[in-house]
Design goal:
Elements: H1 2-29, H2 38-65, H3 70-74, H4 77-92, H5 94-109, H6 117-145
Helix pairs in contact: 1-2, 1-6, 2-5, 4-6
């Protein structure tokens, strides 16, 4: 019982960190394509990656070691939708990560490097898509918890 509660707490905490790091990316990108602090942006993205890993690991812990049996989850359509959306968000996040690393390299080589406005807008749009997807996940979690 305490183990399940600890797993739940760790899972929720890692989700909060994930949301925080994604929001941090959004705020950093809001500085504009000329003023973006790419070093801080890349660190926020690394925090996002680490917290996504923590969400995945704690979620697997809840799946296999939690209070509800594995069959409860595997036969639940909402669970599959939640996992599918989580994977989709992860796939969307690949392009911003690659761009941040490239921008970081270019800025290290040339301090005057300016991020192309079109690319900057595209990364902001992708981060917003990730945030919207992350906002939908709790709906599936609530449905899943109720066996719907």
């Amino acid at each position: 019982m305490y183990g399940d509660a600890a797993l739940s707490y760790a899972h929720f905490l890692s989700i909060f960190f994930l949301a925080w790091f994604l929001g941090r990316q959004w705020l950093l990108l809001g500085a504009g394509h000329v003023a973006v602090d790419v070093e801080t942006l890349a660190r926020a993205d690394m925090g996002y990656f680490i917290s996504a890993g923590a969400v995945l690991l704690t979620g697997l812990g809840r799946l296999f070691l939690g209070a509800k049996p594995l069959a409860f989850y595997t036969h639940n359509t909402s669970f599959h939708a939640l996992i599918g959306l989580f994977v989709l968000i992860g796939l969307i996040s690949i392009l911003p990560t690659m761009s941040y690393q490239r921008w970081r390299r270019y800025r290290r080589d040339d301090a005057a490097y300016e991020i192309p406005p079109r690319e900057w807008r595209w990364m902001r749009a992708l981060v917003m898509m990730e945030m919207c997807g992350l906002a939908v996940i709790p709906i599936f979690a609530v449905l899943m918890a109720r066996g719907i």
